[in-house]
């Protein structure tokens, strides 16, 4: 398709200025670039900076330590390990979120912009944010948080084992890879058991469906991330779900970039959709904001100013989107 510009050079006669709607699209792209840059630069030091985070007294993070300290001594070492595993998983998710936030910025380059890639990147940002929020959730009890860490740890080891079990038998490293994966899965189950957490079977009496705390609290071992996203980001499910169209190459989603063209054999050509790109950026900003809220509440940090700045960025993006819509509609109906 050639260079994916907002307006192909061959469509503009020589020395003709860009029409107002194209100028508005370029202004929108510049604002998206600015918003993503600012969000990344303000988020990174808080989330992944080298400064040691000491939880404030009364914060959920501090409360976790108190609850673990009140458990039976034989459970405490394993519970502390699970706590550390949960922290590690959340920090990896945040690193993934920020990495893809940076990648999303690269997709709004002012010379070449994507047809679909922004949607895939946005979904990664949102899912990574959901994983982080699940750990930092200030409304979750310590028991639920530790169970979530156990579920994540078990799931991680189980998927590793399934992947290695699927390796072809003839490969020279298959046997060792399978054994190491089985050992990791067994170690994960052992750690969970040492924390006083048991496995609850499903209706079939065979499949492990829940992990259960000694007081009866339980959570499922299967996580439905679409549902998690809908719960954590009630204003984002639509664009998140619509974005699955790009992930799975569904025609109804991909066709949003088609516009009539008398020169094309099919009668259409592909052109970037500025509103789709802006929607992806808005979703990514909102996801970062939700992580900020959970992260701040979990550690007892005041992140009010950072959240306010994020909200200003979203409102500003909306203003530029409205400007583009107005210019586009005028071009369509002069």
Walk me through this protein's architecture.
This protein has 334 residues and is mainly alpha-helical. It is built from twelve helices and five strands. A three-stranded antiparallel β-sheet has the order 1-2-3, with helices on one face. It has a two-stranded antiparallel ribbon with strand order 4-5. Mean pLDDT is 88; it is low at 8-13.
In short:
With 334 residues, this protein is mainly alpha-helical.
> What is the spatial order of strands in the main beta sheet?
1-2-3
**Structural class determined from secondary elements:** mainly alpha
Average pLDDT works out at: 88
CA radius of gyration is 24 Å
- Percent of residues in beta strands: 5-15%
Number of DSSP-assigned strands = 5
Termini, distance in Å? 29 Å
Largest sheet: 3 strands, antiparallel
Instruction: Report low-confidence residues grouped into runs of 5 or more.
Output: 8-13
Number of structural units classed as domains: 1
Q: Give the helices and strands as they follow along the chain.
A: HHHHHHEEEHHHHEEHH
Relative helix content? 55-70%
Q: What key attributes describe this structure?
A:
globular, mainly alpha, 334 residues, 64% helix, three-stranded antiparallel beta sheet, two-stranded antiparallel ribbon
């Amino acid at each position: 398709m050639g260079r994916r510009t907002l307006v192909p050079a061959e469509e503009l006669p020589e020395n003709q200025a860009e029409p107002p709607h194209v100028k508005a699209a370029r202004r929108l792209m510049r604002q998206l670039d600015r918003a993503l840059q600012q969000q990344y630069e303000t988020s990174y030091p808080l989330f992944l900076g080298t400064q040691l985070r000491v939880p404030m007294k009364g914060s959920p993070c501090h409360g976790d330590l108190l609850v673990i300290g009140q458990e039976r001594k034989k459970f405490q070492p394993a519970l502390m390990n699970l706590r550390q595993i949960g922290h590690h998983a959340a920090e990896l998710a945040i690193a993934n979120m920020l990495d893809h936030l940076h990648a999303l910025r690269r997709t709004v380059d002012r010379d070449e912009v994507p047809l679909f890639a922004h949607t895939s990147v946005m979904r990664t940002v949102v899912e990574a944010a959901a994983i982080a929020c699940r750990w930092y959730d200030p409304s979750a009890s310590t028991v639920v948080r530790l169970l979530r860490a156990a579920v994540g740890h078990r799931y991680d080891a189980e998927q590793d084992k399934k992947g290695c079990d699927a390796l072809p038998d003839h490969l020279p490293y298959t046997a060792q890879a399978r054994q190491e994966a089985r050992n990791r899965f067994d170690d994960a189950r052992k750690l969970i058991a040492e924390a006083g957490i048991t496995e609850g079977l499903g209706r079939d009496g065979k499949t492990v469906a829940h992990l259960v705390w000694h007081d009866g609290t339980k959570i499922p071992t299967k996580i439905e991330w679409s549902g998690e996203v809908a719960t954590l980001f009630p204003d984002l499910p639509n664009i998140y779900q619509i974005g699955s169209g790009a992930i799975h190459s569904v025609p109804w989603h991909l066709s949003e970039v088609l516009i009539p063209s008398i020169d094309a054999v099919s009668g259409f050509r592909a052109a970037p959709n500025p509103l789709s790109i802006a929607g992806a950026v808005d979703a990514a900003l909102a996801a970062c904001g939700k992580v900020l809220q959970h992260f701040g509440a979990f550690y007892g940090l005041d992140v009010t100013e950072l959240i306010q700045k994020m909200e200003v960025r979203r409102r500003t993006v909306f203003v530029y989107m409205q400007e583009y819509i107005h210019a586009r509609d005028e071009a369509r109906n002069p």
